[in-house]
């Protein structure tokens, strides 16, 4: 039996990626970062975040 992947917070994602929480919120707003709204909170699956980064989602658009 596999254990379900736990949900991660904005703080967890910011720490994992080495960025400010503001960057995480900006990436959510731009509808790029895979996030799930649970009540008033944003939650993440770290496997989805890792895949997003590998796919180039964290690259600057400038």
Give an overview of the whole structure.
Pfam families: HTH_17. It comes from Archangium lansingense. A two-stranded antiparallel sheet has the order 1-2. The protein has 62 residues and is mainly α. 42% of the residues lie in helices and 10% in strands. Helix 1 crosses helix 2. It has helices spanning 10-17, 21-29, 46-54, and strands at residues 36-38, 41-43. It has one domain (10-54). The protein is globular, with a radius of gyration of 12 Å. The longest helix has 9 residues, at 21-29.
Class based on secondary structure composition and strand pairing = mainly alpha
Helix content percent band: 40-55%
Biggest sheet strand line-up: 1-2
Low-confidence stretches: none
- The geometry reads as globular
Rg over C-alpha atoms, rounded to the nearest angstrom:
12 Å
* Secondary structure tally, helices: 3
Pfam families: HTH_17
Domain Helix-turn-helix: 9-55
Protein name: Helix-turn-helix domain-containing protein
InterPro entries: DNA-bd_dom_put_sf, HTH_17, SinI_DNA-bd, WH-like_DNA-bd_sf
Keyphrases for this structure?
62 residues; mainly alpha; two-stranded antiparallel sheet; 3 helices; 2 strands; globular; HTH_17; Helix-turn-helix domain-containing protein; WH-like_DNA-bd_sf; SinI_DNA-bd
Layout of strands and helices, then pairs:
Layout: H1 10-17, H2 21-29, E1 36-38, E2 41-43, H3 46-54
Antiparallel strand pairs: 1-2
Brief write-up:
InterPro entries: DNA-bd_dom_put_sf, HTH_17, SinI_DNA-bd, WH-like_DNA-bd_sf. This protein has 62 residues and is mostly helical. The chain has helices at 10-17, 21-29, 46-54, and strands at 36-38, 41-43.
């Amino acid at each position: 039996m596999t254990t379900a992947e736990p949900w991660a917070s904005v703080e967890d994602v910011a720490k994992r990626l080495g960025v400010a929480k503001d960057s995480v919120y900006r990436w959510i707003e731009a509808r790029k970062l895979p996030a799930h709204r649970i009540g008033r909170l944003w939650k993440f699956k770290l496997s989805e975040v890792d895949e997003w980064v590998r796919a180039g989602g964290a690259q600057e658009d400038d």
